[in-house]
Each structure stands twice: as C-alpha cells, then as structure tokens.
Amino acid sequence: MKDTKFIIFDLDGTLIDTLEGIKEGLNLTLKELNINVRYTKEEVKKFIGNGARVLLKKALKREFNEEEYNLYLKNYEKTQYISPFFKNVLDTLKLLKKEGFILVLNSNKPNEILQKLVKNKFNGLEKELFIDIKGERKEVKRKPDPTYLNSLIEKLDLNKENGFYCGDSIVDILAARNLDIKSIIVSYGYGNKKEIEENKPDYYIDDFKDVERIVYKIN
C-alpha cells in the first residue's frame, strides 16, 4: 500500500461542531457540583484540544477527583448528540473514500464517548469511511504524541509522503509534524488563529471541501 494516499482527521472542530454539546455538559456538571460558574461557547472553545481531563481542569481552575471527572463524562455523553457536521464534511469524506484514499479518525476525545458519537452521527457509514477510529485511551499517549499513529502507518505499510493530518488546532499541527506528514488546518474550528498562523501549517483552509483540492495534488 506504499502508493496509497491517506488522511488522518481530527473530530471536534474539524468534522463535527461539538462545542455546544461540550458547553452544555460542562455547565451541567458545574451546576451539579454546586459551582456557581457558567461558561459561554467562546470561553469553552479555549479549553478544547488536549482531551477531556485538560478541559475539565481548565474549567475548574484546579485539580479534580475521579468522581468529578466521571460526572462530567456522564453529562457530556448526554449532551453531545446535538452536535452537527460542519459544511461539506460528509460529501467530501465520501468522495475521498470513493477515490481510494485511506481515512483515519484520531481524536483526544475519550474513546468510549467518541465511539458513541461517531456511531450516532455517521449512522453506520463510519465503518465504510474509516479504516481506524480511535480516541484517548489510558494505554496510549494522546496526540500530538505520534506513537500510536506511527504504529498504524507502519502496520498499513503506508508512505508518509502520501499522508496528511487534518485538524483545527496547534495540537494537530504538532501531531502532523511529529508524524512527518503535511498538516491541513481548518479556520472554522476551535483553535487559536494567532497560534495557528504563527506555527505555519502546510495548508490553512476555510471550507472542508478544500481538502479535496489539496490532496489531489499528490503525485
């Protein structure tokens, strides 16, 4: 499969607009913990990118215990299904798959919650589109650590010259660099624009459909 082109996708802020669900789950958790703070979407956006534990720590502004963390996961699982796809995502993914690209979904969202959301939103199509779907697990370091994805690329016998990482934040730029593949960053996501521009992704796009234009340039 050395000549096969492949794209690894982030989920939150790239494929699906999960911000409202994350905000609702977080604020519900704060309410149940009797913490008199309610965050806006813009505030919660700044917490996203490094997984649920980092998000909760930033929101609480302190360390938390496992009971508090599990409460947040439980609440977020309730609220996440309101999350819609971003414009042109499904049609573009279907076209890329039809054209023979290998598609991978890699996220820092807790794996169990990720799997449920993907199944709910893709309604079975995820099995046809993605060769691998993984979120954060205890036994694997979260991105931008490249260990898991390097092992997957090696297992599939892929050539990194034919690969891209598509996401929305500095974490995804670093993940791409650590893998030694090109980065595609979407401007409509949750990443800090100044931080993204300073770190110079290979491609910075406003519309997910532009992924097609970029990846077809590979010889």
Name a few traits of the molecule:
alpha/beta, single chain, 219 residues, 15% strand, 45% helix
Q: What's the total number of strands?
A: 6
Query: What gross morphology would you assign?
Result: globular
Instruction: Name the poorly predicted regions.
Output: none
Percent range of helical residues: 40-55%
What does this molecule look like?
With 219 residues, the chain is an alpha/beta fold. Helix content is 45%, strand content 15%. The protein is built from eleven helices and six strands. It has helices at 19-32, 41-45, 52-60, 66-79, 89-98, 111-122, 126-129, 147-155, 170-179, 193-198, 210-215; strands at residues 6-9, 102-110, 130-136, 163-167, 182-186, 203-205. Strands 3-2-1-4-5-6 form a six-stranded parallel beta sheet, sandwiched between helices. Helix 1 (19-32) crosses helix 4. The longest helix has 14 residues, at 19-32. The chain is globular and about 55 Å long. The mean pLDDT is 95.
